[in-house]
Amino acid sequence: MKYLFVLVFISQFSFSQSPYPQDYFRNPLDVTLVLSGTFAELRSNHFHSGLDIKTQQRTGLKIYAAAQGYVSRIKVSHYGYGKALYITHPNGYVSVYAHLEKFSPKIQKYVKACQYEKESYEVEMFPSIDELPVTTDEIVAFSGNSGSSGGPHLHFEIRDNEERPINPMLFGIDIKDTKRPFLSAVYAYPKNRSSHVENSKQRKELRLIPHKNGDYSTEPIEALGDIGFGVVSYDQQDLANNKNGLSNIQAFYNGNKSFEMDFKRFSFDETRHLNRYIDYEIFKEKKSRIQKLFVQSGNTLSMLKDVDNNGYIKVEDSTSSLYKVRLRDFKGNESWLSIPVKGKPAKEILEAPELKPSTYIFADQVNELEEDNVKVYFPTNSFYEDFHIDFSVRNDTLKLHRNIIPLIKSYTITYDIKNYADDQKDKLFIASLYGYYQKPSYISTKRIGNLLSARTKSLGTFALARDTVSPTIKAVNFQSGKWLSKLNHLKVKIDDDLSGISNYRATINGQWILMEYDYKKDTLTYDFEDGISTTTENNLKIIVTDNVGNSTTFETTFYRK
To answer: d(Cα 63, Cα 61) in Å, to the nearest integer?
Structure first.
C-alpha cells in the first residue's frame, strides 16, 4: 500500500497539466455551498486563508475528503483552528478542514491515543503516508465550532506544496454569485507636504455618488502633486448577506494601469503586511478597512501586480485627468469608480503647528526606551517607518502611543518589581489596558528575579496587575455522590476573572482523563466512551491553574454501572 501510494503520488504530480486542476476537488460538504467568508478577505492582522462555509447554523454535518490522499497533519488546540485536519493529495496540494466538532471514528481513535499518551488535549500529529489513507468521498470529520470560531462553520483551504493558501474557487469549487461588488467609501491621500487634495495635505474622504447601473463616481477634485487613493469595498454572494472580500482591484490613470491587487494566493509569512496595505489608523479608530491603492515602504505583498510609481498618480497644474478603479469578485462581476481630477495649486493653507512627542523612533535601528522602573525594547525593523512616539510612565502605567501604528515584529516590555513585597511579586503580571474603563488583559508574562517581561505586537497603554483570586470550578450536569450511569458526558464550568486559565488536569481514580476545554463556554467535558471509569465508585479530581499560579482543586465522588 505504501509503495503504491508513493508511485501514484509521484506520477500524478509529475504529469499535472494545470496549476489549478478542475473537477479534482469535490465540495467538502453535501449541502449547497454558502459562504460567510471568502478567500483573502481582510481580517484582523491577516488575510483569510480559505473559504468559510456555512453549516446551516448547526454542528455535526458530515465532512468529506475533497480528494484521495492521506492525513498528513492533525492539530487540536483550544484556540485558532481548534480541531483541524490536513490531507495531502497525489497532485501535491493539501486540503485543510478546520473548526471541527470531531473526526471520523478511525481518525478520532488515532487522535485520542496520542492525547492519552501525552496526557494533553492539545496535540499535533504528523501521520506517515500509510497510517491514515483516505479516499474521495470518505467522511473524515464532522463540522463544528471549535477554536477561535465565531459560529458553526467549516473553514476549508487548499494549499500548494510550499504551504501557500490558494483560492479554492480556482479549482472549480463553485459559489453562486451574480452581484456586483459594493463601494461604501473612497479617500484621497496626498503623498507629502508638497501635495494637496481639495486644499488639504491630510487624508480626505471624497463624496461618493452611486449610479443606477451599479457604478460609482465622485465630484471632480482639485489636487496637485503625488496623490494616492483608497477604497472601502466588499462583495456579497447570492445566497448570503455577509460582507465578503473582493477577488481583484485595479486602478487606471488616464487609461494606463497604475495598480493591481490580485487576491489569488499568498504566504503566511507575508499575511501580517495586511496592516500596511490598509489604513491601520482608521481601522483601529473606526473599524473601517480602507484598502490603499498605493504602496508604502515595507509593503511587500506578493498579491501586488503592475504597480506604477508605487500606485500614486502625478497631478500637474492646469490638467484634467481621470482616475478609475475596477472592483471585481471571483465570478467576474465588477463595479467601476471614476474620479475626475483637476490639477490646481493649493490656496494658502494655514495650519496649526503639529505638537509631536519628543521621542523619535528610527525604524531601521534598535530603539530602547526607559523611564522609572520600565524599559521598552524595539528590535530593528519593528516598524515600517520613522515616527514620533508618545512614551511616558506614571505609577506603573506605561503609555506607549496609541494603537494606531502597525508593527512588523514583537517588542519587549520589562518592569523592575524590586520595590514590591516578596509575597506580592508572584501574583503580578503585565496587562494591556483596553476599552473605556481601561480593563486589564493578561499578556504572557515571564519573571526572572525582580524583572517581569512580556512581548506584544501592539502599542497602547500597559500596567502591572495583580491576581490573587483562584479560578472557580463548578459541576454542570451532575452532583456529588450521585449515580451517573445514564450520562454520556461529565461537564464542569471553569472560570478565572483576571489573568485567565493557564492549564488544567483531571483524573478519575488517579488516572488522567481527556477533558475538552471550550473557552467560549468556559466548560470542560469528559466523554465516558473513553472507558477510564470502569468501577462502580469513582473519584473525580480536577486542578485548574491561572496564569499567575493561583490554583483550585475540585474533588467529587460519583457512581456508575
So the answer is: 6
Assigned C-alpha cell, 4: 503504491
Closest to 325 (Cα-Cα) out of 228, 411, 452, 394: 228
Tell me, rounded to whole angstroms, the distance of Cα 330 from its chain centroid.
Answer: 22
Q: Quick check: helix, strand or coil at residue 504?
A: strand
Q: CA-CA-CA-CA torsion for 526, 531, 535, 541, nearest 10 degrees? A: -30
Residue 432 has pLDDT above 60, yes or no: yes
Report the half-sphere exposure of 515 (CA within 13 A, side-chain side): 25
Q: Strand 221-234 vs strand 334-343: parallel, antiparallel, or unpaired?
A: parallel
- Alpha carbons 445 and 59: distance in angstroms, whole number: 36
| 358-387 pLDDT, tens digit each | 899 999 999 999 999 999 999 999 999 999
pLDDT in tens, 287-311: 999 999 999 999 999 999 999 999 9
Measured in residues, the chain has a length of: 561
Start-to-end Cα distance in the chain: 43
Quick one: cell of 253? Answer: 490613470
> Based on the number of CB atoms within 10 Å of its own CB, is 453 exposed (0-12), middle (13-18) or buried (19 or more)?
middle
pLDDT at 43 over 90: yes
Identify residue 336 by its one-letter amino acid code: W
Q: How far is CA 354 from CA 357, 400, 551, in A?
A: 10, 19, 51
| Residues paired with residue 490 on neighbouring β-strands, in sequence order | 526
Cβ 63 vs Cβ 141: under 8 Å: yes
pLDDT at 527: 96
Copy the grid coordinates of residue 442. Answer: 493578561
> What average pLDDT does the segment 221-246 reach?
97
Helix (H) / strand (E) containing 105: helix 105-118
- Angle at the Cα of 217 (from 214 to 223), degrees rounded to 5? 160
Which H/E stretch holds residue 11?
helix 2-14
How confident is residue 352, by pLDDT bands cut at 50, 70 and 90? low
CA atoms within 13 A on the CB side of 560: 24
pLDDT digit string, tens, across residues 503-549? 999 999 999 999 999 999 999 999 999 999 889 999 999 999 999 99
- Can you tell me the distance from the alpha carbon of 114 to that of 216, in angstroms, rounded to the nearest whole number? 57
Cell, residue 47? 488575510
Q: Is the pTM of this model over 0.70?
A: yes
| DSSP single-letter state for residue 109 | H
Our CA angle for 363, 364, 370, nearest 5°, is: 60
Strand order across the beta sheet in which 523-527 lies: 472-475, 489-495, 523-527, 515-518
In the chain, pLDDT over 70 holds for what percent of residues? 96
Which residues make beta-bridge pairs with 196?
224
